[in-house]
Amino acid sequence: IASLKNIPEKPKMPINGNDLQTILRLKPGPLFKEIRAAVLDAWYFNPKLSKEESLEIARKIAQSAKAKGQI
Asked: Which of 9, 14, 59, 62 is the S-S candidate for 54 at Cβ 3.0 to 4.6 Å?
């Protein structure tokens, strides 16, 4: 059991679906997948991506979707 303490935690994305619902007031749907993919790409290239930076990416995608009438 002591050896289990040396196993690193799985990294977690800076934001999750709850953040999208509570902070950005988005409803679950196809847009979540698009936002998750964009944040995941950004996080891959910058593992120190902050929650605020991630939310900014999400906001831009949501605004674009709204402008196109997708949400």
From this structure: 14
| Residue 60, both tokens | 């831009």
Residue where the block lists tokens 């999208």: 20
In order of 4, 22, 49, the CA distances from 1 in angstroms are 5, 38, 33
Per-residue confidence in pLDDT tens, the chain, 71 aa: 566 677 777 888 999 999 999 999 999 999 999 999 999 999 999 999 999 999 999 999 999 999 999 88
Length of the chain: 71
Residue with tokens 């605020």: 52
Residue 68 is classified by DSSP as: T
